[in-house]
Amino acid sequence: MLWPKLITDRVKTGEDREIVRSYPYRSACPSTVWADLVKDSTQELFLAGYTNYFLWSQLPDFIGTVRRKAESGCRIRFLLGDPNGEVTRQREEIEGVALTVSTRIRITLEHLEKLSGVEGVEARFSSPHDAMNHVSLSVFRFDDQALVTPHLARLVGHDSPLLHLRRIGDAGMFSRFSEHAEELWERGTSVSVSA
User: Fold this and answer.
1) pTM of the prediction?
2) CA angle 31, 170, 77 (to 5 degrees)
3) What is residue 2's three-state secondary structure?
């Protein structure tokens, strides 16, 4: 009777097996984790952060990596908030930081413009009706792994917690967060990467 309790106290069981690691701050997740997830993805990168701006500075040669991934057949999607949207404006007031939400989105758009014409790279703005749901939860999917950031109150993304998830089955946390991001994507509006 003692051994089973000892084992279940030390070993993940059930749905929590999908949690690879948790971080109290997104910024506490090493950039090598992000880089390895991007590098190891072969089928899909779905980057559904509201701004996604930090990827361009945190990951060396991210533009080149995205280009090579797309050229090798990996589907790459960016879901962004609308830089001119009401939720973006409200979030800027809440955060009250110099590097505004709309500026961070525009940084991503500027980088995406450099990828115009690359087959397999897509971008959308979340719909105005979904913007509040998008700004409060970032989902970054790399094939069967994901990094998820639930944004806390007035904190910017790097100060919010992060979960590293690995798909185990079809009804776990990975799938639930992925379905959330897919739903936002489906209702989003296309962004021309040349705009």
Assistant:
1) 0.89
2) 45
3) helix
